[in-house]
């Protein structure tokens, strides 16, 4: 169902705006700048959990976005995928520098690709040169939202495009890399990605709000954020509810997860504390590619982006987008983690189209503020 609504935005601060005033201001500005119905930030500081919010998660309702509010998290999924691959590395079942062909024979082959020359590591740090399937012919194709897909189908959309560059010679973000990593998880374990996610991460960490939707099931649980696209027509701002439009299996192991601020901060805090993968494999995750991404300038580790904080030090996390949802999350090795969510993705022709700026732009401001906020 698609619902189009015209509304005037009115940000609403948390009930008690005094604590964490800097972060409250950042989340309010994040909402206003991106012309979103609502935004929220959840922070863990070792054992303490706090959050701030502005606006609403559902147009027409007073529904603040809190720590347990579920949302599509898009490419934040990639960190879970990388962590599971690194667990398999620790178990001796996968090797980072072994060719993809060893685990997925015949999958990455032809059209300029040679799976014997692309390593697992190159999938996880985006140095594989494999094209991104999120194109008009693949993930953005409306026809592909009408029915479920296997990971192999989704990967084939990217592999149908010519390589971006020779493996290991550059860095460029590609969703196809994480889909292939998910296929490796399934091939090596003999279980579905969802089964391995539950057994390896969500159940051990108690992440009750984090799951991969069943292919074909576009519904969101009661109390979740609704996701919107925006459009300005003759000066009026319209919101299109697209919560139940995108097919979850199009995201899969690269972007299909639903989660919450409480779960995201718990997962990243545990990951950076060495509670998800052993220290040796965590060190691999935090080793960045030798050159930054050609488009964003980000340095990629394995399933992680390295962020430099304005208060000093670094944080590790990822961006996430899904139709109607924008998010970012990161954690430090000192025990602090933050998750910011916004219930729009801007579209061409809206003033928010330049407001979000895509990954790496104003998404960083609320996250950085939260990670540096000692108030």
Characterise the protein shown here:
This protein is α+β, with helices and mostly antiparallel strands and 375 residues long. It has twelve helices and 14 strands. Helix content is 29%, strand content 19%. α1 packs antiparallel against α12 (364-372) and α2 packs across α7. The protein is globular, with a radius of gyration of 20 Å.
Strand arrangement, major sheet: 3-2-13-12-11-10
Number of strands: 14
Given the structure, what is the number of helices?
Answer: 12
Regions with little confidence, pLDDT below 50 for 5+ residues: 12-17, 348-361
Radius of gyration: 20 Å
Give a quick account of the main beta sheet: strands, pairing sense, barrel closure.
6 strands, antiparallel
Q: Write down the overall mean pLDDT.
A: 91
Beta-strand residue percentage: 15-25%
Structural class: alpha+beta
Instruction: Report how far apart the termini are.
Output: 42 Å
Helix content: 25-40%
Q: Categorize the overall geometry.
A: globular
Query: Secondary-structure element sequence?
Result: EHEEEHHEEHHHHEEHEHHEEEEEHH
Care to give the gist of this entry?
The protein is built from twelve helices and 14 strands.
Task: Considering the chains and any ligands shown, give keywords for the structure.
4-stranded mixed sheet; 6-stranded antiparallel sheet; globular
Task: List the SSEs and their pairings.
Elements: E1 3-6, H1 21-33, E2 38-45, E3 48-55, E4 71-72, H2 77-90, H3 100-103, E5 109-110, E6 113-114, H4 120-124, H5 151-159, H6 175-189, H7 193-205, E7 228-233, E8 236-241, H8 252-255, E9 258-259, H9 261-272, H10 279-285, E10 305-308, E11 314-322, E12 325-331, E13 336-342, E14 344-346, H11 352-355, H12 364-372
Parallel strand pairs: 7-14
Antiparallel strand pairs: 1-8, 2-3, 2-13, 4-9, 5-6, 7-8, 10-11, 11-12, 12-13
Helix pairs in contact: 1-12, 2-6, 2-7, 2-10, 5-6
């Amino acid at each position: 169902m698609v619902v189009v609504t015209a509304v005037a935005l009115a940000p609403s601060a948390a009930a008690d705006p005094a604590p964490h005033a800097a972060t409250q201001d950042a989340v309010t500005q994040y909402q206003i700048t991106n012309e979103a119905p609502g935004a929220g930030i959840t922070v863990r500081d070792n054992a303490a959990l706090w959050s701030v919010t502005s606006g609403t998660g559902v147009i027409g309702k007073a529904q603040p976005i809190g720590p347990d509010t579920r949302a599509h998290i898009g490419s934040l999924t990639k960190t879970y995928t990388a962590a599971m691959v690194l667990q398999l590395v620790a178990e001796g079942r996968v090797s980072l520098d072994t060719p993809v062909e060893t685990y997925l024979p015949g999958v990455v082959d032809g059209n300029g690709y040679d799976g014997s020359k692309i390593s697992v590591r190159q999938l996880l740090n985006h140095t594989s040169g494999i094209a991104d399937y999120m194109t008009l012919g693949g993930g953005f194709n409306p026809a592909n939202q009408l029915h479920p897909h296997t990971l192999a189908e989704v990967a084939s959309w990217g592999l149908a495009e010519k390589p971006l560059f020779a493996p290991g010679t550059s860095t460029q973000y590609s969703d196809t890399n994480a889909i292939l990593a998910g296929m490796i998880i399934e091939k090596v374990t003999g279980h579905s990605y969802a089964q391995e996610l539950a057994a390896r991460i969500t159940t051990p960490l108690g992440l009750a709000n984090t799951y991969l939707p069943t292919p074909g099931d576009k519904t969101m649980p009661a109390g979740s954020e609704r996701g919107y696209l925006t459009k300005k027509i003759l000066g009026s701002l319209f919101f299109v509810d697209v919560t139940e439009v995108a097919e979850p299996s199009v995201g899969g192991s690269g972007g299909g997860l639903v989660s919450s601020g409480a779960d995201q901060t718990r997962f990243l805090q545990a990951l950076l504390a060495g509670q998800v993968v052993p220290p040796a494999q965590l060190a691999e995750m935090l080793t960045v590619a030798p050159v930054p991404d050609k488009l964003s300038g980000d340095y990629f580790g394995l399933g992680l982006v390295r962020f430099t904080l304005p208060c000093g030090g670094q944080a590790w996390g990822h961006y996430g987008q899904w139709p109607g949802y924008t998010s970012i999350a990161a954690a430090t090795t000192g025990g602090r983690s933050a998750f910011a969510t916004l219930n729009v993705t801007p579209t061409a022709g809206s003033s928010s189209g330049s407001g979000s700026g895509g990954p790496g732009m104003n998404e960083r401001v609320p996250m950085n503020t939260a990670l540096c906020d000692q108030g």
